[in-house]
Amino acid sequence: MSAHAVRPLPRRIRLHPLRGRRHPRVSPGARLLSVAGIVGARVHAGGRLVGLVDDLVVRVGEETYPPLVGAVVRSARGRTYVSGESIVEILPGELVLADPFERRPVESRPGLVALAHDVLDRQIVDVDGADIDRVSDLVLGRDDDGFRLVGVDVSVRTLLRRVGPRVLRRRVAPERVYDWASVAAFSERDAGDAGSVLHLTDAVAALRERGPADLERLLADLPPHERAQFPGSSTGAA
Amino acid sequence: MTEATVPRARPRRHFRRVLGLLAIAGPGLIAANAGNDAGGILTYASAGAQFAYRTLFIMVLVTVALVVVQEMCSRLGAYTGKGLGALMREQFPLRASTGAMLLLLVANVGLTVSEFGGIGAAMEIFGVSRYIAVPIALVGVWAINVFGDYSKAERAAIVLSFAFVAYPIAAIMAHPDWHLVARDLVAPHFVHSTAFLVLAVALIGTTITPYMQFYVASAVVDKGIGPKEYPAERVDAVNGAIVSDVVSIFIIIATAAAIGGSGPLSSAREAAQALVPAVGSAAPALFGIGLLGASLLAAAVVPLSSSYAIAEGLGVERSVSNGPRQAPVFFGLFTLQLVVGAAVALAPGNLISLVVNMQVLNGLITPVLLVFILILANRRSVLGNAANGRVFRAVSTVCVAAVGVLALTVVVLKALGKS
């Protein structure tokens, strides 16, 4: 009891927060979340450890920035799907579920995309079909409704961070991020999931790279309910 | 919008040009040529010189494994439309695929070393020091790939490497003990010595080369071969593997008949003795020309292949002709491998044993990468109905496990200091 009464100072407090830093640091519980960082993180429900994060699921097709609708949790009992209603909080190193939470079987449904499985590490091609980059990480941002997929991180530094220790993966500090609005959905070339590719919707998408600060700003600029927009249609003519 | 996209060169043009040329020459012949790079020729010759016909049985087993592995690689290319670099990145955890790419890079740097070693050994036959020949070759290979007409240079190198057609002729004219050859080909046997095991690993490393597997998959993708065209491609892949190994077996027989049992090879001139029955006193010159051609050809193809696979894993531009600006990863890796390869080949010491040691390195890395390939070919989520069936899965698992056990044994024996 007494050991927990006095908490150590948060590690994030540094003496010289500005020195050598090019991007503003994102605090925990913040508005930006790394998908590569949350995969493998612990899942708690009512204070109990119930499993590890296997994947995050978004719904594509209706809104420019796909909303997070659920998560896949991996435990000794296998993989289960947990819908968004059961998710209480997502922190960079932890997923907190309601207690009790509803377990559903994992199944693929049209419109739902498992980010780690279907999008992470996939190829990004430009309008000509030429290879540009691969997805190093995906950035989710929180607006008033919850988390949305806002950016595709393609920086090499993020890739290296993923190869390193887990704790490094949680931080969102990409150098090169494509706005999700400039990325059209997936094309399935053949059978199996090995065919999915992300297409940039226009040739100048490369110019729209954003840093984390821009992504934060982007979230602030989002209208509260921008339904009835489709990926591609909003930016294709721009 | 279109203006911005016009100047972009097609990323695979370079590769396709190479393949177009190879297609004319015929797949079996290409495979035979590709397998017989400096490492291959000198390792097969070493096997013949040191153990006469005793390694032939191993070559038969290696051929079975090669057929199985190359079929899986071309199937993966045909059904997914992706090279192995891309598949590994997408299908395995990032750390695992990064490890695989690093191993491929190490294996290929080793091979590049052995190609430059081959160039050095070949030119020593003509009395040219390797300290002159290797740097010139380095600059030449690099410049031709970056600035020049690679296809013409490649054609010339292929023509030079045709010198090795003399091997089967030499093998027959040397009148080897065919009874002994037949016995060592089919009767299971083993020589109880670490040197034999190490050479067996070198034979595996040079025959089931990691780079060839990546090359085969990418070549199938680049040729645009899909599931429909695959049945014909499968025949080609199997034939290519068999033809390639038949030529290798002739190299062992010819060398064994000429200098079998005389101990490890010490020079290229000694290896050339195997060609004497076919061409007489011209043997050293012919061997030198062939070795030079094969080495020059592979000195470009090997680093290109690993650069291609790694750039594919990273998802970036893959072409040397686009220069360092547009394809920095590809260009940088290609240059780095050539420079390191040439530099190591210049280190003092016996070139032949250096080349054979690099094949041992490849043989140790091969089983690790084969596990990745096997897992990919087993996955129905990758290949759908074309995934390995039950029987094929069993056969390929046995092949990969056997290669792995042999490599592990050599590592353990070497660690214990047994010779």
Please characterize this protein's 3D structure.
The complex is a heterodimer of chains A (238) and B (419). Chain A has 238 residues and is of the alpha+beta class. Chain A has one domain. Chain A has six helices and 16 strands. In chain A, the strands form three sheets. In chain A, strands 2, 3, 4, 5, 6, 7, 8 and 9 form an eight-stranded mixed β-sheet that branches. A four-stranded antiparallel β-sheet of chain A has the order 1-12-13-14. Chain A has a four-stranded mixed β-sheet with strand order 11-10-16-15, with no helix packed on it. Chain B has one domain. The longest helix of chain B is centred in the first third of the chain and has 32 residues. In chain B, 79% of the residues lie in helices and 0% in strands. In chain B, α7 packs across α8 and α20 packs antiparallel against α22. Chain B starts with a helix and ends with a helix. Chain B has 419 residues and is mainly alpha-helical. Chains A and B meet through β11 and α4 of A and α1, α6, α7, α17 and α21 of B.
Instruction: Report how far the terminal alpha carbons of chain A are from each other.
Output: 59 Å
- Range of helix content of chain B: over 70%
Number of domains of chain A: 1
Range of strand content of chain A = 25-35%
Low-confidence stretches of chain A: 1-29, 187-195, 203-207, 224-238
Largest sheet of chain B: none
Number of helices of chain B: 22
Shape annotation of chain A:
globular
* Poorly predicted segments of chain B: 1-13, 24-28
The major sheet of chain A is characterized as: 8 strands, mixed
Helix content of chain A: 10-25%
Structural class of chain A: alpha+beta
Overall number of domains of chain B: 1
Overall mean pLDDT score of chain A? 70
How many individual β-strands of chain B? 0
What are the secondary-structure elements of chain B, in order, as H or E? HHHHHHHHHHHHHHHHHHHHHH
Query: What is the subunit arrangement here?
Result: heterodimer
Number of strands of chain A: 16
Order of helices and strands of chain A: HEHEEEEEEEEHEEEEHEEEHH
